[in-house]
């Protein structure tokens, strides 16, 4: 299983949806709360080029946000990506 990293904020509905989808699949992930650690927000922006959360990586692949991950799930491409 590829490592999953997700930049989030506590009151982000899309962040919660992404966490629910991963939990439903039994996928563990590393969560980086950019509200609790605001210095990591700039790291997220630099790595992703995006300003919004969630920002999700599976292994070295930047997936994007929840909509992007959900699209992968709907097309049957999320599980293969998670398996590496």
TrEMBL record:
InterPro entries documented for this protein: Glutaredoxin, Glutaredoxin_subgr, GRX_bact, Thioredoxin-like_sf
The entry's keywords: Cytoplasm, Electron transport, Redox-active center, Transport
Which Pfam families does the protein's record reference?
Glutaredoxin
Q: Does the keyword Cytoplasm apply?
A: yes
Question: Where in this chain does the record put each Glutaredoxin domain?
Answer: 4-63
Top-level taxon of origin: Bacteria
- Does the keyword field hold Zinc? no
Please report which protein family the annotation says this sequence is part of.
Belongs to the glutaredoxin family.
Q: What does this protein do?
A: Has a glutathione-disulfide oxidoreductase activity in the presence of NADPH and glutathione reductase. Reduces low molecular weight disulfides and proteins.
PANTHER family in UniProt:
GLUTAREDOXIN 2, GLUTAREDOXIN-1-RELATED
What protein is this chain from?
A: Glutaredoxin
Q: Which organism is it from?
A: Sinisalibacter aestuarii
